Amino acid sequence: MSTEFRIDVQKALGKTEVRAHFRKAMDTLMTNRRNQFPDDAALQALRHQAQAIRANALSKLPELLEQLEAKLTAKGVQVHWAETTDEANQIVLSIMQKHQAKSIIKGKSMVSEEMGLNHFLEAQGIEALESDLGEFIIQLDGETPSHIIMPAIHKSKEQISQLFHDKFPDIPYTENVDELTASARRILRDKFYTASVGLSGVNFAVAETGTLCLVENEGNGRMSTTVPPVHIAVTGIEKVVEKLSDIPPLLSILPRSATGQPITTYFNMISGPRQADEKDGPTEVHLVLLDNGRSNIYSDPELLATLRCIRCGACINHCPVYVRIGGHSYGTVYPGPIGTILEPQKQGLKVHGELIQASSLCGACGEVCPVRIPIPNIINRLRYDSVRKDTEHTPTFDAGTKRKPLEAAIWQGWSWSASHPSLYNFGGTVATQLRGLVPNKVGAWTNVRTAPQLADKTLHQQLKALGVDHE
Amino acid sequence: MKPDTIYFFGTCLIDLIYPQAGVSAVQLLQREGVKVIYPQAQTCCGQPAWNSGYRDEARKVARAQIKLFPKDLPIVIPSGSCAGMMKTHYPELFKGEADEAEALQVANRVYEFTEFLVDVLQVDLKDFGEPVAVAVHTSCSARREMGVADKIEQLLGQLSKVEVKEQAYKAECCGFGGTFAVKQPEISAAMVADKILHLRATGATQLVSQDCGCLLNISGAFAYQANHEGKTAPKAQHIAEFLWDRTQAAEEMKS
User: Which positions fall inside the 4Fe-4S ferredoxin-type domain (chain A) (predicted)?
Assistant: First the structure.
């Protein structure tokens, strides 16, 4: 029985060219990261520090959010709270309507992807234009990001060249990356000057000072947040940190883990709208703080670690599953290991519960995570939640809904026999039972492998014959 | 200080499919002057159920295991995966249970087999085998859960006629992952296909690993391609069996 996810996976696995492209891209990112951390002891110390900063912030999340709101409000930033993505979209829309704005220019924001903001605004007759080059490319092609920091990583240079030529017929066909970038810059420059609202995400929000920090490489983030008269920042409620001094360690580990850059080209610290004595900057700044299931995750001490994430994408870059199936197969906003733990928690196990099976639990993600999120442990926990009976003891949406009577009975039978070894020959029984566990899928094992052969004599029998003591 | 007696936990996979690996491991330990106790009531560490989300079922099986090691002796396990289950996951599995202390007692005494040979017994191996090119596959659990990724190479480094060939993407998972291989067979197949491609490219005629789950997957894929496509397949063995075969010859020559 093939699920929708497995059908998508099979299609993705069949695209050898795209797979080769992903492999090359991920290899480069892994090498770049490794080169940034030549001293493993220093890396581990920094990971511990970054984990502590994020864990500390989450431990006082409600207080820090209130402090952030107070500080920002005092500086003239308008702070909005949205429990759902619908609410967040409505907030953005009402700001747009107040200014009779017909277009919005966007810096890169995964939270806006989470909101489905572009489609929402377009349905309202408002043009939403992506200004991050990768986002710009996939928007041209009507696609979604396949990676959280490199949204167009699945596309080849040739595909992008053709896409530009198709969408902008007056641009001559070229595979020269500099020329393509220059064309995009020229197109976007006009939009920056004419859009009345700019939108951005937030990497870190500092409660102590009321500062919104934005990491980026192209300068489009700075343009989006400074050129249009109105700036709207959207972010998840978990992005707050306590102090300004928390920023340097996070800024040190984020780009090095993500792209293997020592630092990004731009680092923006936004402290409020244009003041009376200032000559530029937006006259209005808004912050939309989105929950969208985060409070639910926050309520469980183990699952809470999910919210430490600083969205570097290192887990994705190092995932042997992601590199083979690509980002779109996941069918979620956030792909890869972080998506595997985040999306089922946000949207429920019924919709995205299968993702937690799409992991060999190899641990590569947890090993590189800059804030030491134990991703494999959380996958294991979600697998437990998906089949557990005492569903009132977890905040996970749709807990217990993946419990199937046959599978549960098989594990119970296995459990009984493996805990009563003296009653009969353990080995043969277990072998038979495990064979029965997934009868329709044994064929898949032998599609590419020979079937395992049971030994003539078990280790129990052989060691007994050799006279090895048993107590 | 070398312990004179240890417990041996053979793992269900070795019990059923690779018993020779378990016998070799026991013989290697005995040759070092260590008395081996193999509790006959042992079955499985409980990991298959644990990784499938069936924690109560896993605990029931794990509970039967922790009672088998009452004396304060090291528990040696020829698998990074099962050792990782007992060492790192038993504490989670038994958290808040009446026998939590007992489970922690067991967890703290667990050693992966190659780790025990290198770090505790500090074995000194003599190689009397034929020259051979060997590729090593270290399981993800040995590498990341147990932190013993370098032990096989340290042991092979003592063997004068063994040349270790390093494959591309050495640290990448082979795609086994227990129930992953049956629940997501397409992704698993793609992973093992790449793994054997890189292993074959080394030209090694022998593959060793400390985990039989990986061996089941990798050698199964090699054998399939040998049967269906006539491609070469290195001989795949658990590290214990490989070491015993090559160093036992030395013992025979001495006597």
Answer: 299-328
Helices (H) and strands (E) in chain B — how many of each?
14, 8
Q: Which CATH class is domain B132-254?
A: alpha beta
Is the pLDDT at A469 greater than 60, yes or no? Answer: yes
**Is residue A15 domain-resident?**
no
What tokens appear for B180 in the block? 């992953």
Chain A nearest-CA distance from B10, in A, is 7
**Residue A344: both structure tokens together:** 């089922």
How far, in Å, are A45, A76, A115, A231, B136 from residue A87 at the CA level?
40, 22, 9, 18, 54
Helix, strand, or coil (residue A60): coil
Structurally, chain A folds into a number of domains equal to: 3
| E strands, A316-448, in order | none
What residues pair up with A213 in beta bridges, in sequence order? A204, A269
Give the residue from A372, A393, A414 where a domain finishes. Answer: A393
Instruction: List, for residues A230-273, the tens digit of each pLDDT value.
Output: 999 999 999 999 999 999 999 999 999 999 999 999 999 999 99
Final residue of a structural domain among A393, A428, A455: A393
Q: State how far residue B247 is from chain A, nearest Cα, in angstroms.
A: 20
What is the extent of the structural domain holding A161?
50-292
Q: How many residues does chain A have?
A: 471
If asked whether residues A185 and A170 sit together in one domain, one would say yes
ipTM here: 0.96
For A:396-455, CB contacts with B below 8 A are: 402, 408, 411-412, 414-422, 426-427, 430-431, 434, 437-438, 441-442, 444-455
| A424: chain B residues, CB-CB within 8 Å | none
**Number of C-beta neighbours around residue B40 at 10 A:** 16
Question: Based on the domain organization, do A104 and A210 belong to the same domain?
Answer: yes
Q: What is the pLDDT of residues A284-299, one digit of tens each?
A: 999 999 999 999 999 9
